[in-house]
Write a structure and sequence with these properties.
The chain folds into 3 domains: 151 residues, SPOUT methyltransferase, trefoil knot domain (Alpha/beta knot), CATH 3.40.1280.10; 55 residues, Trp Operon Repressor, Chain A, CATH 1.10.1270.20; 190 residues, Alpha/beta knot (3-Layer(aba) Sandwich). Helix content is 38%, strand content 18%. It contains 17 helices and 20 strands. The strands form 6 sheets. Strands 16-15-12-19-17-20-18 form a 7-stranded parallel sheet, sandwiched between helices. A 5-stranded parallel sheet has the order 2-1-6-5-7. The chain has a two-stranded antiparallel sheet with strand order 3-4. A hairpin with a 5-residue loop joins strand 10 and strand 11. Helix 7 packs across helix 9. The longest helix is centred in the middle third of the chain and has 19 residues. 33% of the residues are buried. Bound molecules: S-adenosylmethionine. S-adenosylmethionine (SAM) binds next to strand 5.
Length: 441
């Protein structure tokens, strides 16, 4: 397979392809990589390749003529070559795209620089636009290297064994199983005994099982797309003890249409100023256990603070996959309901996307609201199993007025005989019992 890289910085490519697997693939003639300096196609005296943008604005734009000449020169040698512009505005690169591209014999990869390229290059000369992720690089060279690496390793003969690529993450829309090598024991952690058993059937079953488990925990979106065999479905059923897993890998009673949101922002403090509260280990554990008990479909911990997001993810990981999962498997079961979201809108979007239907938001609080509905009315609403509901629970001094005003409903407060200031950990079980108590089997 041939890669022509159109770039202003050809030297960037010298070392990445001189090492390891790709160097060997070049040596064996399995891939050919050629860099073409776009500057060589600028015909003026100073080889100018960029100019200021029409309409003003920052930076420079790569001119259309040198790029057009460079592409046309590469194509003149092979009209079937496929021209790709690496750009953050392109389709996000993934394993399926790598697979598809690996069936082509010749790719021309155009690397932009500065503010990008003149739009007419895209309109007239580019077959496909690809991004390697939602971030902006200074140039397309690193993106081209990523693409070449991912595509090349799929070509026959490039990897040591043709099977290795097939077992990698994403190949069959599954993440790869965990890998171990010597030593057997490290800091009290042993490698799984089965991998040393020499029983290939048992090992491959273990690996399939772990790949399915890992994908359902980390990338349930992939699992939803995976082509699962009957055997896989059986394994999943076993893993999830006969329960269904929903689209984001939660083990649930499918009939449930109720989600909880534990909101850490926007929240009032005691002076009614809007703040973000800190996540609390105990709240998450207790509310997740309660949610599991009542067959709730998912618990979203909502915080925009990156450090808090990471904290919750680390905590979930400890109980789902780390030492905690072995120490206390039932805790794992409840925490499998927990997701972290950056905002109420993000959590709502996720649910609406899953259901292909707008989620109804229901706020809670200690004081009545003009939109307040009784528990009885809400129980009736929940009977519409086609509609998902997200009950929002405030932390700190409660949900802001705006969150309540923007919700579809506000649930009547608990109590109200003078004092009803409950912790969120206390309010959740009371509310769930009132709403779902008699539905639990
Ligand atoms: C600074 S970027 C220009 C970004 C452009 N102004 C925009 O907002 O779309 C310069 C070049 O880097 C490359 N590039 C930057 N981020 C990329 C990404 N995520 N994937 C692929 N190429 C990227 C593109 O070739 C782009 O033309």
């Amino acid at each position: 397979m041939r890669f022509d890289i159109l770039t202003l910085f050809p030297h960037m490519f010298s070392s990445p392809f001189q090492e390891s697997i790709l160097a060997r693939a070049i040596e064996k003639g399995l891939i050919q990589i050629r860099t073409i300096n776009i500057r060589d196609f600028a015909l003026d005296k100073h080889h100018v390749v960029d100019d200021t943008p029409y309409g003003g604005g920052q930076g420079m734009v790569m001119k259309v003529e040198p790029i057009a000449r460079a592409i046309e020169w590469a194509k003149s040698q092979d009209p079937s070559a496929w021209t790709i512009y690496l750009t953050p505005q392109g389709k996000q690169f993934n394993q399926d795209m790598a697979q598809e591209l690996s069936s082509r014999s010749h790719l021309i990869l155009l690397c932009g620089r500065y503010e990008g390229i003149d739009e007419r290059v895209r309109e007239l000369l580019v077959d496909e636009e690809i991004s390697i992720g939602d971030y902006v690089l200074t140039g397309g060279e690193l993106a081209a290297m990523v693409l070449i690496d991912a595509v090349s390793r799929l070509l026959p003969g490039v990897l040591g064994s043709d099977r290795s690529a097939e077992e990698d993450s994403f190949f069959h829309s599954l993440l790869e199983y965990p890998q171990y090598t010597r030593p057997f024991s490290f800091r009290g952690r042993d490698a799984p005994q089965i991998l040393l058993s020499g029983n290939h059937g048992a090992i491959s079953l273990w690996r399939r099982r772990e790949a399915l488990r890992r994908t359902s925990m980390r990338r349930p979106d992939l699992l939803a797309r995976a082509n699962l065999s009957d055997e896989d479905k059986k394994i999943l059923e076993e893993l999830f003890q006969g329960e269904s897993i929903n689209d984001f890998g939660l083990r649930i009673k499918m009939e449930s249409n109720l989600y909880l949101g534990l909101v850490h922002h926007p929240i009032y403090d005691k002076r009614r100023e809007v703040i973000s509260t800190a996540v609390t280990n105990l709240d998450i554990h207790d509310i997740a256990r309660c949610a599991r008990t009542f067959g709730v479909r998912g618990l979203f911990v909502i915080t925009p603070l990156e450090s808090q997001v990471q904290l919750v993810e680390r905590m979930i990981c400890h109980w789902m996959e780390g030492a905690g999962s072995v120490y206390n498997p039932t805790r794992k079961e409840s925490l499998s309901l927990v997701r972290v979201s950056r905002s109420i809108d993000e959590a709502s979007r996720e649910i609406s996307d899953l259901w292909k239907k707008k989620v109804m938001r229901v706020a809670t609080g200690a004081s009545p609201h003009p939109k307040s509905i009784s528990f009885e009315v809400f129980r009736k609403l929940l009977e519409d199993r086609e509609t998902p509901f997200l009950i929002l629970f405030g932390t700190g001094w409660g949900l802001t007025q705006e969150v309540k005003d923007n919700s579809d409903y506000v649930l009547a407060p608990i109590g109200g005989r003078g004092y009803n200031h409950l912790s969120v950990r206390s309010a959740v079980p009371i509310i769930l019992d009132r709403l779902l108590g008699d539905r639990v089997v």
